[in-house]
Structures are given as C-alpha cells and as structure tokens.
C-alpha cells in the first residue's frame, strides 16, 4: 500500500467543505497589474540551475508580464555566501537573492546587507504562512526573508518496479527499510543510490535519523549549538548511519561509488534508462528530476514513502527552503521588493507548482495547483505539519560549518561515508568545526 493515499487528508476535506485555510479562497494578487515597473531590471541570484532555473524563470516571466519589470537571473552555485559577498564588494550587488540556508540569511542580515521586508510582504506572510516560516525568515524579530520554495526532506523515492520485483512493500520503519533494501539487492539492484559527492545530501540523512532518535528538543539544541556534537545522541545517530554506509549490499557502488555520485546522478541511478538501484533518499525535488530529465510518470513509475521512524520513534519531518531577500546595495531594490511581494502570493507559487519539482509553504495555494497526485500529497503533508516541521539543521548553521563545499559538516560526513568505522571520532571532528564556525 502506497503512503500517498494516507496523506491526502485535512486540506482536501476542508476544500470540499469550502474552507479557505488550506487554499480555498481566491488567490491574493501581489504587486501591480499596470506595468508600473517598466524600464527597470531586477537582478536575482540563486543556487538553481537546470530545470529548477528554467521553472523559476517562468515565475520571473509572469512577474514581468504583470509589472513590466525585466529580470535577470544569475546562478551562484552552492557557495552563495562567497559569491554574493564578492558581488557586494565589487559594487555589483543583485537586487534579490534566493538564499538556501537560514544560517546564510542570518549572516547577511547581521552584516547589514539586507533590507527588512516591507509591511505589505509581512502582511502576505502573516496571512498565508505558518509561524515557523516567519521565524526562520527573521533575525532579531525583523523579517528579512520570504520562503518561496520549500522542500519536504523526509521522503524516500523508489521505483515501484524494483520493489515489486523484490517482493517488498514500502516500509514503515527504518529497520524494515534496510530489510527491503537487502531484498532489492538480492533481486539484482543495489538498494540505495547515495549522492555522496554532494555533502548536503549526507547532512539530510543524518538529520532525519537524529530527529527521530533524539527528538525535536535536542534537534533544536544541536541546530543552534546549544548542544555539542560530542553528545551521545549524535554518536548514536552516526552509528546508525554508519551501519548503512558500510553495507556494500545497500549502497550502489559502495562508498567509492557514492562519493563519485552527485545528486542528479543518484536520481539517474534509480530512474534513468539503466537503473542501478531501487531507492534514493532525498527531498520532494527528486520528483522534478525524475520527471523532467528521465520522463518518469510520478505516481506510476516513481513514488515515495515517508522517511521511517528509527528505533520505534516517530517519523521525522525535516524541511528546507529558499528565502527571497532584498539587498540594500541593489540598484533596483524597490522593484526587488515588489518581486518579493509577488513571490509571497499564491499566484506566483502556482506558476511553478504546475511544472513540478516544487512545494510552496503558502497555505493559500490550492492543492489542485500541483500537477500530480504525489506532489499534491507531499505538499499537503508539509502544510499539515505546520509548526511541527523542523528546518534542515545544516541550513541553520553558519555557512562555514553547514553550507560550504570541502569544509565543515559536508566534508566530515563525506569522510565518514568513506570510512564509517569511528562515529565518536567523527562527532569530535564535527564539534571542533562547529565550535570554530559559531565563534566566528
């Protein structure tokens, strides 16, 4: 039995009854409709490339049609903090940045780079978003970031054909997931494709295990470094993760193969023309890659189950997201603020929602805006989680620890994937890196 049917609750029922809390009202328009920004060009920087950039461009094009403002998107790659800092120093600051980490947003705000969002934007946020999203977009009670694109990072994607061939159902517990993986391996495919070349995917593995094992209070404490990484709960989560990493039956290509696989490559190993694995753990955005790059029909030959609870504990709900911020040094920051106001509307979210590979934290976006049942289910699940959602831990950390290639948590978990034999030593190294980053 596939889990998506159990997720289509609450909002879909309320919509039938005509309620508006989950998106049943008329979309709230943002910005003007009178081409009032004609002649201006809003520069927007963000990490997106490929299909994500193409789909976001459709949102920007809709903004242009509405306001007359042209847009120019610049892809920063993963090192957003370094790239934007260089642009500001060089007098070439973009107007709007789509920031993928809470820690980077906080860093930008404390450096004095950001313009507080307008009262109009804040009103849209209050009307359409759970309080947790405003919290993560604020620094010292001032709203700087509008979360336009969210991620549901507690989803495990699988090939129904691979599980059927192995004679297993989508698992309900972490141990059952490993057992299912071994059955998939016995049937001729590896269990999991792991994108170890991208360190951020490894942090997501850790966070789901840790949140389930340790609980939300310790998760929050570790995320803010009020709890040290040498804590026994961290060592326990690393030990659990290490059991997966060292099992060659479970990882496509073993640790060496995983370390040479980036995120798109991990999706290709499950949903590409020559499958090598039956499952890939990552967020809902897996669906966009599977659909756009490999032509998979979401819900038919690509599906998901919730990341299962570990050791009999509750299943985790980890999220992430990209927040739109306005830079003070941007040449057209007022037009940039109007873009952010537009992004706060369900009208803007609906443009990308219909393309796939996207979730909105805006509860005023109707679930029917999503193009397939599976994406609709993940979106409703995220909205219903409300204040229980826990934001991606590495995205809350300073970028030097949780968001930069080759250093900090990304590198140390890659090292752990390469050799998972000493979880305690890895915890010690993580604490040393975290202590330095938080002090800086």
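-> sequence recovered:
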């Amino acid at each position: 039995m596939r889990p998506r049917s159990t997720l289509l609750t609450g909002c879909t029922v309320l919509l039938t009854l005509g309620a508006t809390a989950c998106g049943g009202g008329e979309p709230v328009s943002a910005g003007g409709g009178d081409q009032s920004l004609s002649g201006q060009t809003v520069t927007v920087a963000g990490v997106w490339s490929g299909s994500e950039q193409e789909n976001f461009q459709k949102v920007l094009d809709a903004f242009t049609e509405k306001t007359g403002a042209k847009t120019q998107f610049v892809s920063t790659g993963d090192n957003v903090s370094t790239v934007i800092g260089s642009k500001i120093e060089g007098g070439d600051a973009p107007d709007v940045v789509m920031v993928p980490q809470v820690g980077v947003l906080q860093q930008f705000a404390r450096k004095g780079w950001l313009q507080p969002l307008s009262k109009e934007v804040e009103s849209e946020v209050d009307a359409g978003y759970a309080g947790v999203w405003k919290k993560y977009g604020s620094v010292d009670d001032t709203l700087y970031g509008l979360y336009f694109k969210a991620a549901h990072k507690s989803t495990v994607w699988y090939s129904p054909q691979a599980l059927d061939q192995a004679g297993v159902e989508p698992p309900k517990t972490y141990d059952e997931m490993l057992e299912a993986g071994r059955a998939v391996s016995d049937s001729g495919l590896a269990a999991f494709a792991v994108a170890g070349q991208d360190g951020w995917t490894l942090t997501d593995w850790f966070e789901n295990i840790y949140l389930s094992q340790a609980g939300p209070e310790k998760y929050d404490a570790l995320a803010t470094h009020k709890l040290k990484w040498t804590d026994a709960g961290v060592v326990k989560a690393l030990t659990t993760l290490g059991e997966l990493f060292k099992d060659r039956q479970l990882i496509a290509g073993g640790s060496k193969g995983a370390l040479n696989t980036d995120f798109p490559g991990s999706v290709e190993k499950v949903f590409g023309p020559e499958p090598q694995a039956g499952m890939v753990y990552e967020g809902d955005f897996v669906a966009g890659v599977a659909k756009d790059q490999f032509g998979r029909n979401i819900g038919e030959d690509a599906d998901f189950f919730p990341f299962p609870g570990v050791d009999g504990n509750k299943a985790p709900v980890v999220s992430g997201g990209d927040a739109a911020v306005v830079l003070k040094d941007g040449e057209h920051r007022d037009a940039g603020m109007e873009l952010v106001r537009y992004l706060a509307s369900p009208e803007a979210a609906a443009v990308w929602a219909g393309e796939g590979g996207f979730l909105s934290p805006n509860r005023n976006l109707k679930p029917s805006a999503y193009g397939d049942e599976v994406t609709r289910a993940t979106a409703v699940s995220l909205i219903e989680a409300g204040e229980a959602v826990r934001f991606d831990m590495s995205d809350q950390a300073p970028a030097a620890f949780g968001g930069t290639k080759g250093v900090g948590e990304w590198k140390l978990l890659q090292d752990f994937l390469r050799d998972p034999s000493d979880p305690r030593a890895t915890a010690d190294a993580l604490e040393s890196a975290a202590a330095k980053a938080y002090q800086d």
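The longest helix spans residues 50-67.
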